[in-house]
């Protein structure tokens, strides 16, 4: 546990906005303090007539040092919920369970557990003074009431200080209305490739099968119309699901095979740089000249380490990716420019540990809510994952900075400085099964991202752990698959049993992907 007052603030970064407003209201009969949350700065939303996401919190006060309880309480509208506490260095050991009330029907859910597999990044971002400890956020859909119980039952004998519930309303947006710092503008679609001659075969465009009403600006999880890219590669597009409907839970046509055991040349040793390039934003569509240099395998010998903006001699074609503008990212939340790695040595696969009971039309709203939770609750600069994939196989840009660039994320504690993180929407530990479409999308995305740096997705790599992760100790040489699960680097159940067991097939599919180098 690290004393909060000793945490250093990044010298060259802008200070994060303080999101909580000063006012406090005591809810009658509950003994729980309700705090309003508001965005910092004058531009509080994506603009252009959209409704920005909102964060609401309930402080879980109480006299019992080992437990907190909240009776059924009416709240403002929210669709994603988690718990957080003051000091991110204070690891919570115990259980937290919540029940929520559906806004549409008034029905209360069963008790659901919150997961505690989150660590603030080991980079300077994790040392900001307003970084909080938190659970994984849980998507529950439009809700207007909550009940909670939290119990400390590990070696820690008390619940953490300043414990609270964090509830996120994802807001509403429409196609092309969001702003973007790093992933395409205007159209909301990115074909992420610096290859001037690349063309993307046409493919089907799923239509939302169950759109969320948008009449209530604070109670709806509205989504962009047609959030799915209009161009998808025909060679890798699964055909087991009908556009606009949820695929079946059972996977089909899973690739078989195992990864190769041959190690690569070794780990990258250059630290990430927090200096943003001149123009990190990729063009919305391929142009005759790339708008920003692509990363290379090795830094230039004439530049200082950590500040290289390299180019790559061999660039595979790119899968279609929904840009931040496409899913409605509120760029006013992001206070600091992105940081960059010199090379992506590995890809870590995650799950969001939320719910599998979502439609693919919900995906943009889920990602907007996670962005808001990561910034306003965790206190991070931006969303932690570099990419998201949903069960329909749609790929979404995550952290800003350019999908083809080696952006430093906050997803795998101890190994962020070497890797890119891909998170599949859903829970794959408690009965969920990744669809064939999702597995193929992860394989293609991993093959492309690693291929930008000449990395074989079926190989292994040796990386030096940058922190004690529960699996590796700081400074230990960790030999990992270039496509690994979160649990391979950090002590967690993520990405869930069924998704983790699918990784050998995903690696084989990545090796044969048309986006892999040399294919």
The SSE string, one letter per element, is EEEEEEEEEEEHEHEEEHEEEHHH
Radius of gyration over all CA atoms, rounded: 22 Å
What class would the helix/strand composition place it in? Answer: alpha+beta
Shape: globular
What do you see in this structure?
The protein has 519 residues and is α+β, with helices and mostly antiparallel strands. It is 10% helix and 21% strand. It is globular.
SSE layout:
Elements: E1 20-26, E2 33-37, E3 54-59, E4 67-85, E5 94-102, E6 112-113, E7 133-134, E8 138-152, E9 164-169, E10 189-191, E11 320-322, H1 324-327, E12 346-351, H2 363-377, E13 387-389, E14 395-397, E15 419-424, H3 436-451, E16 460-464, E17 477-481, E18 483-485, H4 486-489, H5 497-501, H6 503-511
Parallel strand pairs: 12-15, 12-18, 13-15
Antiparallel strand pairs: 1-2, 2-3, 3-9, 4-7, 4-8, 4-9, 5-6, 5-8, 10-11, 13-14, 16-17
Helix pairs in contact: 3-6
């Amino acid at each position: 546990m690290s004393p909060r007052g000793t945490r250093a603030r990044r010298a060259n970064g802008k200070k994060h906005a303080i999101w909580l407003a000063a006012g406090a209201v005591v809810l009658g009969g509950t003994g729980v303090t309700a705090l309003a949350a508001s965005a910092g700065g004058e531009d509080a939303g994506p603009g252009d007539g959209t409704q920005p996401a909102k964060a609401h919190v309930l402080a879980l006060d109480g006299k019992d040092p080992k437990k907190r309880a909240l009776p059924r309480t009416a709240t403002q509208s929210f669709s994603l919920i988690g718990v957080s506490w003051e000091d991110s260095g204070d690891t919570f050991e115990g259980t937290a369970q919540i029940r929520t009330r559906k806004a549409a029907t008034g029905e209360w859910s069963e008790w659901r557990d919150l997961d505690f597999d989150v660590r603030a990044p080991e980079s300077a971002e994790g040392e900001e003074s307003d970084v909080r400890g938190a659970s994984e956020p849980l998507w529950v859909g439009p809700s207007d009431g909550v009940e909670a119980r939290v119990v400390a039952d590990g070696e820690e004998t008390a619940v953490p200080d300043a414990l609270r519930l964090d509830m996120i309303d994802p807001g509403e947006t429409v196609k092309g209305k969001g702003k973007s710092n790093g992933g395409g503008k205007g159209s909301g679609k990115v074909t992420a490739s610096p290859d001037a001659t690349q063309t993307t075969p046409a493919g089907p465009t799923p239509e939302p099968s169950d759109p969320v009403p948008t009449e209530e600006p604070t109670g709806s999880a509205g989504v962009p119309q047609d959030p799915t890219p209009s161009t998808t590669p025909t060679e890798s597009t699964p055909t087991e699901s009908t556009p606009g409907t949820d695929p079946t839970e059972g996977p089909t046509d899973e690739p078989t095979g195992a990864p190769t055991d041959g190690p690569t040349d070794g780990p990258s040793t250059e630290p990430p740089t927090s200096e943003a390039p001149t123009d990190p934003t990729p063009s919305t569509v391929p142009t005759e000249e790339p708008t920003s240099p692509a990363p290379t395998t090795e830094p230039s010998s004439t530049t200082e380490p950590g500040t290289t903006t390299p180019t790559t001699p061999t660039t595979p074609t790119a899968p279609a990716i929904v840009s931040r503008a496409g899913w409605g990212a509120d760029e006013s939340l992001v206070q600091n420019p992105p940081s960059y790695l010199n090379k992506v040595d590995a890809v870590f696969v995650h799950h969001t540990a939320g719910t599998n009971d979502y439609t693919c039309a919900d995906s943009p709203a889920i990602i907007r809510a996670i962005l808001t939770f990561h910034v306003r609750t965790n206190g991070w600069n931006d969303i932690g994952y570099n990419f998201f994939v949903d069960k329909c196989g749609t790929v979404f840009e995550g952290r800003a900075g350019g999908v083809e660039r080696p952006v430093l994320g906050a997803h795998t504690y101890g190994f962020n400085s070497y890797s890119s993180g891909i998170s599949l929407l859903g829970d794959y530990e408690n009965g969920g099964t990744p669809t064939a479409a999702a597995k193929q999308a992860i394989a293609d995305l991993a093959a492309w991202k690693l291929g930008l740096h000449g990395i074989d997705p079926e190989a292994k790599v040796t990386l030096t752990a940058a922190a004690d992760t529960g699996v590796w100790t700081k400074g230990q040489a960790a030999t990992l698959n270039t496509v690994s699960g979160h649990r391979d680097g950090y002590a967690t159940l993520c990405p869930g049993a069924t998704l983790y067991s699918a990784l050998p097939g995903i690696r084989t599919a990545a090796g044969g992907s048309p986006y892999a180098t040399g294919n």
